[in-house]
Amino acid sequence: MEYRYCGKSGLQLPVVSLGLWHNFGNATPFSTQEEIVLHAFDKGITHIDLANNYGPPAGSAEENFGRMMARELKSHRDELIVSSKAGHYMWSGPYGDQTSRKNTFASLHQSLKRTGLEYFDIFYSHRYCPEVPLEETVQALIDIVKQGKALYVGLSKYPAHLASQACDMMAEQHVHCLIYQDRYNMICRKPEAEHFNFLRDKGVGFIAFSPLAQGLLTNRYINGIPADSRVYKEGAFLHKEDITEEWVEKARRLNEVAASRGQSLAEMSLAWVLAKEYVTSVIAGVSSIRQLDDNVAAADSKPFTHDELNEIDSILGNSIVR
Fold first, then answer.
1. What is the pLDDT of residue 64?
2. Distance between alpha carbon 123 and the CA centroid of its chain, in Å?
3. Is 138 helix (H, G, I), strand (E, B) or coil?
């Protein structure tokens, strides 16, 4: 496994990180989850990405990971980077949502309890909330570091100008914003125009979630929608309507490009993200050992030629979101 320094810091992250967003709640057998996490660790994936609301139900991914820590990984704590986040709806009432100091600290303490950890390696503000002063959220993150409840802090899904301001606020109190997390893949390229310049200037690392666009950038839907597809699951972010005949044709053509490189479409899609010099890591969300191994294989991909990159852009055409 290759490791890259995260921005201007001494922390290295594996180029493939394991995200526990979808398949590590109570709907998935615990034995399956544990097998995947332990296999990932054996493959050199030392970064586990969580959030307080991951499940389903919300909180269950942290609880299940806490069981794995207690059963198998406790002696390896210093070999792991464990991250979590707060900011999305978590419990009823005025303090269970948004990014106030009250919510941020309550969420942090709940997440530490669920995971059984004494601290997180990275703790994120999971989103920008316009109803809460930016200074309030940022000060909470600064205090979390100064109280030793997280070693580093990061931001996720913030507008670029506000993320830049937040980084400056942290720096004024000698806390470095380690990392920024957002959706990034061959279809969704907004971070290129909106975030990468200021992240480079401020020495902040970038980690991409949804590098496979919830499965669109795989060969899973080339021959129709499988019966076990996540599009049929309640709360899914990918919907049946997203898989149009036009998209299927594009996926088939992308798959041909991948095959010419000796890769699956999923491997090529991950490799495309990792080929960007400003990307520290990608978060892989998997439901099986086989998927995990495919993602790890993408980290050893050969470089893209200019012709390949141009062909990918030509195929995607108006599907690209900038």
1. 98
2. 13
3. helix
The answer to whether 87 and 98 have CB atoms below 8 angstroms apart is yes
Phi, psi of 42 (to 5 degrees): -65, -30
H or E element in which residue 257 lies: helix 245-260
pTM: 0.93
Three-state DSSP state, 122: strand
Report the alpha-carbon distance of residue 112 to residue 110 in Å, rounded.
Answer: 6
What type of residue is 247? W
**Residues 122-139 pLDDT 10s:** 999 999 999 999 999 999
The bridge status of strand 81-86 relative to strand 120-125 is parallel
Name the β-bridge partners of 208: 182, 282
3-class secondary structure per residue, 286-306: CCCHHHHHHHHHHCCCCCCCH
* Domains of the chain, start order: 3-319 (3.20.20.100)
The whole-angstrom separation of Cα 160 and Cα 180 is 10
Q: What gap in Å lies between CA 300 and CA 264, rounded to an integer?
A: 13
CA distance 27 to 195: 35
